[in-house]
Amino acid sequence: MLAWIEELSWIENAGIAALWSAALVRAPQAVRHREQRPLWFAVVMIALAMSMHLEPVTAVLSRMVPGAHWVDLTTHLFSIVDAAAVLWFIHGAAGRRRRTGVLFGTAAAVMAALVLLDVLGPAHARNQIAPSRATPSVPDAYWWVFFAFHLTADTVCGIVCWSHGRHGTPRLLRYGLRLFGSGILLATVLWLLKLVYLYTRSPVFAPLFSPVTGVEAVCMALGVALPVFARIRTHVQYRRSYHGLERLWQDLTTHTPDVVLRPANRIGAVAVPLQLRLYRRVIEIRDAMIVLRNYIPPATLDSIQQSVNGRSLPAHLMDAHITACWLTAALRNKREGQKPHAQTVNLTGPGDEDGPSAHSLTHEIDHLLLVAAAYRAGTTTASPRAGK
User: Fold this and answer.
1) Which residues fall within 8 angstroms of residue 242, CB to CB, at 6 or more apart?
2) Contact by Cβ (8 Å): 294, 331
3) Closest CA to 324 of 375, 366, 284, 254
4) Which class for 1: exposed (0-12), middle (13-18), buried (19 or more C-beta within 10 A)?
5) Residue 334 pLDDT > 50
């Protein structure tokens, strides 16, 4: 059983790597937004403290610093700072009073106590819980102070995250808080395991420290990186919509070039955010539809509606297919040189009056994607010609 648990040590490495990755991807946001810096700082401190616990890192640092126990002590001091920083940030994010002076004053007192207990303790090679009480090490009071602070800070953080992440909180924030809170509560489990190990010195508990630390780091990394995943998903959706409207936009603007906001420029287009390019493409398609609707006589429009209504199409696709049909007919009429006639019927779909707003843009994009799909599918080839 112990051998199987020891084989899970890779989880700790993976979790720490995930935590560093989360800190890296959130760094630009921390630079731009002051309110995000405490969380980013806390995550970096957590990742740094966890990394310094890894034996390869400790071995390298031990060759640079006289006395490996100073490396351990520094790691513990870092972890006190990161626990205080996380607690401070979580209280602020939840809209609670932070009590900055009390929190960081307590953290400073705990750090001073750890240094004092380390210096006054017997000579020791490492600041680790020795498997045997006969092995010289820091006094048990050192660990009680260290674990008590972490237990208190992490338990409060986990409870605040879960209580603030209830229904009514925006979904993305709720899930992020719950994932981060789960990681913090796993840290509480870790401190409890270490307290039991301190009391019993049983070899059963020590192999559990590494995998629990790894899962804790993974949960916190996911909670911190969740907004990045959401932005990536949104970007992918924008790109799919942008390319999904490509053929429809190309055909319409080829015959109504005046609606294009500016000539196509590959270098300039790269500098424009994708969301803005998609917004502009929607505007240009709608403006082209306003122009082209004047090339559809009422009789032709009636024939198109009757033809599409006679097909076995789902109700939510009927309007899109009618729009695709009259667009094809209008393009054909314009190519053949027919004169435009004022059209009072609204044929351009939702948002015609004021242009796409922030609230209606998604709905309008979805509608235009249905039109584009019908247009591409060739369902408009049987559209009635003007005058028939």
Assistant:
1) 274, 277, 278, 281
2) no
3) 375
4) exposed
5) yes
Per-residue pLDDT, 14: 92
Measured CA angle at 188 (ends 186, 76), to 5 deg: 110
State pLDDT tens for residues 249-297: 999 999 998 888 765 566 666 668 888 899 999 999 999 998 998 888 8
Predicted TM-score of the model (pTM): 0.70
For residue 195, what are its two tokens?
Answer: 């307290």
Give the tens place of pLDDT for each residue, 212-221: 999 999 999 9
Handedness of CA 281, 283, 287, 293 (dihedral sign): positive
Backbone torsion region of residue 280, taken as left when φ is above 0, otherwise alpha when ψ lies between -120 and 50, otherwise beta: alpha
Selection from 257, 288, 263, 282 nearest residue 355 by Cα: 282
- CA 210 to mean position of chain CA atoms: 27
* Tokens representing residue 213 in the block: 């630390």
Q: Quick check: 358 pLDDT over 60?
A: no
Among 51-55, 106-110, 138-142, the range scoring the smallest mean pLDDT is 51-55
Distance separating alpha carbons of residues 235 and 41, to the nearest angstrom: 27
Copy the structure tokens of residue 76: 């513990």
Q: Hey, what are 96's tokens?
A: 């609670």
- How many angstroms from the chain centroid is the CA of residue 378? 39
Location of structure tokens 């059209």: 343
CB distance 230 to 309 below 8 Å: no
